[in-house]
Design brief:
Blueprint lengths: L3 H18 L12 E4 L3 E7 L3 E8 L2 E3 L2 E2 L4 E7 L7 E11 L4 E11 L5 E4 L10 H19 L27 E4 L2 E2 L5 E4 L6 E3 L4 E9 L3 E7 L4 E11 L6 E2 L4 E5 L10 E7 L2 E3 L2 H6 L8 H12 L1
Parallel strand pairs: 1-8, 9-10
Antiparallel strand pairs: 2-6, 3-4, 3-7, 5-6, 7-8, 10-11, 12-19, 13-18, 14-15, 14-17, 15-16, 16-18, 16-19, 19-20
The chain binds zinc ion.
The site of zinc ion (ZN) has 4 residues, from strand 12.
């Protein structure tokens, strides 16, 4: 039987728990445990009237939260197209004005998604590359790696995202696995939109052009940095109309579609990347709610509109 002293201690301990976990002055609403399929996105929020800052990490990637209205912090997390199914923790730290620090680990499950798979044989040496090709491929890899290694800037994008061309995507092209002569190749990390040649390709959101050039696989390419570690990519372009460093607004024409690079016909390859996870760009159209407050760039846009 418990002694009265031990019972009193237990009660004291539980009162302590209540203060630290939510009944006290620093009440915090943490996100619920979540499951994210390969290539998908999830919006997460932390709420608390006294919270002034939220930091997050998922695996080795930082999760960038930002203030979004009174007492709310919001962020996006995503699972790479090739993410290993795993049970992870979204590690969160919230800080209050008075210097209080509150932590919570939210279970996040990365889940396997069934992607379209094609298996075929080609004659030996069919897709062999020359030494010159290898130089070009290395140049392409270096250029893209440099872009994604840059530290993330402030968010420039606003809900909603736009389709870069009015056409539909070719069925299940995102995440498609090809097995050639029995060897699995890297999954297709973008979405192919069936744009005829010379279709105007527009920026799916506000951002900065961080790459504009011609490459071996991707052909004419534009990469937009939307801030907050989010990028969108546009490949196989024929006529690039923006330069590196240009700030573009949602709907601005970036280029015309084409069939440049390693392709068999004209289309637009549209890609998206969030904190080094290659995600299905359709997720940007489907999963981003209208709750996001305008970004800095959007307030500038509205000023221009009012001045007219
Ligand atoms: Zn593609």
């Amino acid at each position: 039987m418990r002694s009265p002293v031990a019972l009193a201690n237990l009660v004291a301990l539980c009162l302590g728990c209540a203060t630290a976990f939510g009944a006290g002055p620093a009440r915090i609403v943490w996100p619920k445990p979540m499951e994210i399929f390969q290539g998908e996105l999830s919006e997460v929020s932390v709420m608390g009237s006294e919270i002034t800052e939220v930091e997050g990490a998922l695996g080795k990637e930082k999760v960038l939260f930002q203030a979004n209205g009174a007492a709310k912090f919001i962020a996006l997390i995503g699972a790479d197209v090739d993410a290993k199914p795993a049970a992870l923790k979204l590690r969160l730290t919230a800080r209050s004005r008075e210097g209080g620090e509150f932590r919570s680990d939210i279970p996040v499950k990365f889940k396997k998604k069934i992607f379209h798979q094609e298996s075929f044989q080609v004659p030996p040496g069919f897709d062999q590359t020359t030494p010159e090709n290898l130089d070009e491929i290395r140049r392409e890899q270096t250029a893209f790696a440099r872009v994604f290694a840059a530290p993330p800037g402030d968010r420039l994008w606003d809900a909603p995202f736009l389709r870069p061309v009015p056409h539909q995507e070719s069925a299940s092209s995102f995440g498609r696995r090809r097995i050639i002569n029995g060897t699995p190749r890297a999954p297709h990390s973008g979405l192919d939109l069936s744009a005829p040649a010379d279709t105007e390709v527009v920026a799916s959101n506000h951002g900065k052009v961080v790459l504009a050039g011609n490459f071996f696989f991707a052909g004419g390419s534009v990469v937009l940095d939307h801030g907050g570690a989010l990028y969108t990519m546009y490949f196989h372009l024929s006529d690039i109309r923006v330069g590196e460093g240009t700030i573009v607004r949602k709907g601005d024409v970036l280029a015309l579609s084409g069939a440049t690079g390693r392709v068999t016909g004209a289309h637009l390859h549209w890609g998206a990347r969030l904190a080094n996870a290659r995600i299905d760009p359709l997720e940007l159209l489907k999963k981003i709610s209208s709750h996001w407050q305008p970004s800095g760039l959007s307030s500038e846009t509205s000023t221009h509109i009012t001045e007219k």
